[in-house]
Amino acid sequence: MSESNFAAPSDRRDREVSGATIIAQALKTQDVKYMFGIVGIPVTEIAIAAQQLGIRYVGMRNEQAACYAASAVGYLTGRPGVCLVVSGPGLIHALGGMANANMNCWPLIVIGGSSERSQETMGAFQEFPQVEACRLYSKFSARPSSMEAIPAVIEKAVRSSIYGRPGACYVDIPADFVNLQVDVNSVKYVECCMPPPVSMAETSAVRVAASVLRNAKQPLLIIGKGAAYAHAEEGIRTLVEQCQLPFLPTPMGKGVLPDNHPNCVGAARSRALQFADVIVLFGARLNWILHFGLPPRFQPDVKFIQVDICAEELGNNVRPAVTLLGDINAVTKQLLEQFDKTPWQYPLESKWWKTLREKMKSNEAASKELASQKSLPMNYYTVFYHVQEQLPKDCIVVSEGANTMDIGRTVMQNYLPRHRLDAGTFGTMGVGLGFAIAAAIVAKDRNPGKRVICVEGDSAFGFSGMEVETICRYNLPIVLLVVNNNGIYQGFDSAAWKEMLKFGDATATSPPMCLLPNSHYEQVMIAFGGKGYFVQTPKELQESLRQSLADTTKPSLINIMIEPQATRKVQDFHWLTRSNM
């Protein structure tokens, strides 16, 4: 046998590629730019390979937060972020993020290591039926059948995550694949998938929708986060201004059109919902956020015009007058064509507009009165009005908590699309710091200098507070505001807490909503090298926020003490369950 049949070891190595490198290259080919995760057996080499190929890797402190971050990248960029997790418990921790992404309709790829194939059913290290488990939380869940199949599976995962209604996808990687070597020529990388195809509504349905809207006595547009994801802001703005229609944003629909737009009726939300006779839904679902579209929140005979990319969503809970199935941006342009052919404008001096303006004026006055109160500790409205005064108009606001998110949404303004992230459709607590990290990483690449403001309740901060170390490690100049009322919904002050403990152990006497009074959360930030502030007065809040916004070199945490029993104003009840009419 000739010597040419025997390749030198170094030659063989040059012609071989590891599973980790195949995975990284397949992701790179699909234009994936960001990966979040926690490394360990068996996925460490995947993270290293991804970094070597130019994919940004962010090491988090909890897989749940990593998954939230990766999903936020999908929403902000339209291309899925990757969450990389170890097998078994690591993947299970990420399921919350997968479910959240699926409920929010955000693209996400989760790559999980799993036990070696040769040890299946033997009780292998962290063995778990991962592919099966993920099917409940994703659009697509699969394990490549071979090393050579990895690129095709990853391409399908990326494509599935962004086509149709976006969502989470899972790719399972057996431990023995990661370092296994195969001939480089045996691996064929699949070309980057095409952008999602743009579908349009039936022309006849668009004509009917335009006719229904023209005949409305009390019309309303509702702008959901689906419109933000679809980049439909230009078309919706034109429709609103050309036809002079009132609009109401959902929490993450805020900013598609600016909150200070003259046609925004957010301050009269309940009144607008309850008395509108024709409502156009742009990427907003009739779920709990919109009271299912049912009485008494809505008129029994209200006509819904439903614009959505997902056919299965059309007709949920209420039979719509018209359904427009298609890309929200494209369908908005179709509607505009109808109004260009036959111009129509809703009269600004109508009784409906007068009713909405009056309600907005009275609600805004009530909020301003609360914000102007000088008593200490501060209330929510005082805090948010002072924060709003200083926030840059182009900042990204991340918000989570109960009253903190609820009240903050009504006071803090958004002026740009895709600049608000919150608990979303799933009402998930714990998303805040992961979302903020993702937003800061994307902003650093795309809009250097753009600030990220993360507004947390003290309970919400506790879910992912150790991600402060992640923020400091990557030196992300996020400004964290912890609105601290010593509890979940409400808490006790120090004196009441000490008095309560006289009656027995805290496990027997402390109400379940209570947290430790006056906790110094700012010390967590200081411990990792950032700046921390403990504030109790409006002046201290103003000064600490001014300093935090002026310093673009370090993250900051402002721990804002408020009245433990603070809640919403009497005239304006909880937006989920009560009316502010």
From TrEMBL:
User: Which cofactors are named for this entry?
Assistant: Mg(2+); thiamine diphosphate
The record's subcellular location field reads: Peroxisome
Where's the Thiamine pyrophosphate enzyme TPP-binding domain? 406-560
Q: Where is the Thiamine pyrophosphate enzyme N-terminal TPP-binding domain?
A: 18-131
Hey, which pathway is this one from?
Lipid metabolism; fatty acid metabolism
Entry keyword Ribonucleoprotein: no
All residue ranges annotated as the Thiamine pyrophosphate enzyme central domain in the record = 207-335
What's the protein here called?
Answer: 2-hydroxyacyl-CoA lyase 1
What is the native source organism of this protein? Hipposideros armiger (Great Himalayan leaf-nosed bat)
Q: Which gene encodes it?
A: HACL1
